[in-house]
Structures are given as structure tokens and as C-alpha cells.
Write a structure and sequence with these properties.
Blueprint: E1 5-7, E2 10-12, E3 16-18, H1 27-36, E4 40-47, H2 48-55, H3 69-72, H4 82-99, E5 104-110, H5 119-125, E6 130-135, H6 146-163, E7 168-172, H7 179-188, E8 193-196, E9 204-206, E10 211-213, H8 225-234, E11 241-244, H9 251-259, E12 264-267, H10 269-274, H11 278-293, H12 313-330
Parallel strand pairs: 3-4, 3-12, 4-5, 5-6, 6-7, 7-8, 8-11, 11-12
Antiparallel strand pairs: 1-2, 9-10
Helix pairs in contact: 1-4, 2-4, 9-11
């Protein structure tokens, strides 16, 4: 089977990418992922807060609505030597890129424009084949408009694109008033790829200690439906590559995402649950499914179930919505 694919202009041996996670914290971890067969590896993220603290503790914030940033630093774990953390990251990136034959992608997690974006160039110089720009921003300020939020994303992308020549992918959330338009604007602004979607890691409440309980949980297959919907709508409508993430538990989700038009499918949860070697299991499942369906290459079926170009996207999604509710209404859910 020909599993080769292209993502961000890079030639990958297959469409399964190991997304940023603790598995890529070491060179050995990156090697294990590569040996298991993934097409590329995204390193764990450097955070804007780390980079800003290192570069300038008292910098004037570049974007409107970021006057709370100084306060936010108090919530970010302090490191005795932030610069050491950055040097360690770049050293890992350089050694990992030299140790494996698959592309290694650097990751920056940020929410405001600023000079920290220059660190993307350091990643490029250390061997990153591309940069994944993870924009995690929850606009809780009631005075910040939706257009301001959108412009913030474009400004961050612009700063990073100015700093590097390698491809840049933007990992964004689904919480825009017009997600398709935002995707188009990012595409026109130079994003080489879009990663759909960033998970909103909502905090929980501990009712006994009366405290907020932040934490993370691994994604489940049901969470794939939202990014799947948007990838199906965007496939063929923008030039940027489309990477699917969230809800990938096995080869079934890998196949579904490819059918709706994803160029690559990223997973961390499945590999954290089962170990890096599970990548080989997922790819074997993809190959066996292709054999049953008599496909010889991924491009033979990629986008087969995407929303056709020229169709009425709104009517299509509205129709799917109404059909789903009708089926639910007629289903027997047993006694209440």
C-alpha cells in the first residue's frame, strides 16, 4: 500500500503524525515514535510565558487586551533558569532531528503577538522541519470583540512567518463565530497548514476543598466529530494543509479523518494510552482497510466524503442536523 502523503509541503511516508505530548520530551521518545512508523513528530511545546519571561520580564505588551498578562505569569510555573529550559528544548530539537529520518516539527504555544515569536527562528535553525503554532486563547474579557480575537490570531501568525522560512501550521480552536472564514483568512495570511482543533482544557471544581482543579484528560473518539465536520467543509476550499487532531483512538478514526479530507491525522492520546508502538497497529489497520476496499494509495480515497465543491455548505450541514434530530426523535431510548 502507498501511504505516502504531503503535509505543509513536506513529503511524509504516511499520514499519521505524533502530536505534541510527553512522548516527545526526549530523543529516545522521538526515536521510539519514528521506529513505530509515524510520518512525523511534533515536539512538546515551548510556552509564550516561558519565552517572554526569558526575553523581557517587563516588556510592554504588543496587543490590545493583554494588560492582564503580567498577572497571568503568576499562574505559570516558575523555573529557576528559563533560559536553560529554552536551550534544553533547542538542544533536544537539534538532536532529535539528527536522530530520525522523519520530519521533526517544533511547537510554540502562545496567545499574544510579541518578540517571543523570534524563537521560532531558533527552532528552524535547530533543525525543525516546520513550526506548529498552538494559539490557545480564551477571550474571557467582555470588552474584547470577536474581530479582535481573530486579528490577534492573524497578528501572531504574521510575526512567526516573518521570523522563519520553514512552513508554519496554526493549531486553533473551533470557537469562532465563522470558523470557515477564519480558516480562509489564516490561509490568505500565509498559514501553510491548519490543525483542527485545539482542545479547550476546562478546569473542574473540587467541592470538598472548594478549589479549582485544573487538569487534562485524554480525548475520546466522540470528540472527533467536530473537527471532522469542519475538515469536510474546508477540504478543497483553502490551499493550506489540513491536519486532524482530537478523538483519534485507533485506525477507525484515522480512516474517517482521511475520508473527509485531512492531509494528516495527529494523535497523542492513543499513543499515551497504548505506547508509541501502537502507531504500527494503527497504520496496519489503515493498510488492511485499504486492501479490503481495493485502494492502493491514500490519495485514492482522501476527501471522498468531504462536502463537494460547489454545493451549498449551509444547506448540507442544516440537512444533516435535521436528519440527525429526526432519527433521534424516532429512536427507542427505553423508559425514562
Amino acid at each position: 500500500m502507498d501511504l505516502r502523503t504531503r503535509y505543509l509541503g513536506l513529503d511524509l511516508r504516511n499520514p499519521l503524525v505524533a502530536s505534541a505530548s510527553p512522548l516527545s520530551n526526549t530523543v529516545d521518545g522521538v526515536q521510539r515514535l519514528a521506529d513505530a512508523g509515524v510520518g512525523a513528530v511534533v515536539l512538546y511545546s515551548l510556552f509564550e510565558e516561558q519565552l517572554r519571561r526569558e526575553a523581557e520580564q517587563n516588556a510592554r505588551l504588543a496587543a490590545a487586551g493583554t494588560d492582564s498578562f503580567a498577572e497571568s505569569l503568576s499562574y505559570f510555573p516558575h523555573t529557576a533558569d528559563a533560559d536553560h529550559g529554552t536551550r534544553r528544548y533547542l538542544s533536544l530539537l537539534e538532536r532529535a532531528a539528527a536522530a530520525v529520518s522523519v520530519p521533526v516539527i517544533g511547537s510554540i504555544n502562545g496567545s499574544t503577538p510579541g518578540s517571543w515569536a523570534g524563537y521560532a527562528r531558533s527552532m528552524q535553525d535547530s533543525g525543525a522541519a516546520a513550526i506548529e503554532l498552538n494559539i490557545y486563547y480564551l477571550p474571557g474579557d467582555s470588552h474584547v470583540s470577536g474581530r479582535d480575537v481573530e486579528q490577534r490570531h492573524l497578528d501572531i501568525l504574521g510575526r512567526v512567518k516573518e521570523a522563519v522560512t520553514v512552513p508554519v501550521a496554526v493549531k486553533l480552536s473551533p470557537y469562532f463565530s465563522a470558523t470557515a472564514e477564519m480558516a480562509r483568512r489564516l490561509d490568505l495570511a500565509g498559514a501553510d497548514g491548519l490543525v483542527l482543533f485545539n482542545r479547550f482544557l476546562q478546569p473542574d471544581i473540587d467541592a470538598e476543598t472548594l478549589a479549582v482543579a485544573p487538569g487534562t484528560s485524554l480525548s475520546r473518539a466522540g470528540e472527533a466529530r467536530l473537527p471532522m465536520t469542519w475538515i469536510a467543509l474546508l477540504h478543497g476550499r483553502i490551499d493550506a494543509s489540513l491536519a486532524a487532531t482530537t478523538g483519534v483512538e485507533g485506525s477507525k478514526e484515522l480512516i474517517k479523518y482521511l475520508l473527509v479530507g485531512a492531509d494528516v491525522v495527529m494523535t497523542a492520546s492513543a499513543l499515551l494510552r497504548h505506547g508509541p508502538d501502537y502507531a504500527a497497529v494503527m497504520l496496519d489497520g489503515l493498510s488492511r482497510w485499504m486492501g479490503r476496499k481495493e485502494y492502493t494509495a491514500v490519495d485514492d480515497f482522501r476527501g471522498l466524503l468531504a462536502v463537494p465543491i460547489g454545493s451549498d455548505e449551509v444547506a448540507r450541514e442544516r440537512g444533516d442536523y435535521v436528519s440527525a434530530l429526526r432519527r433521534a426523535n424516532s429512536a427507542d431510548f427505553g423508559p425514562w
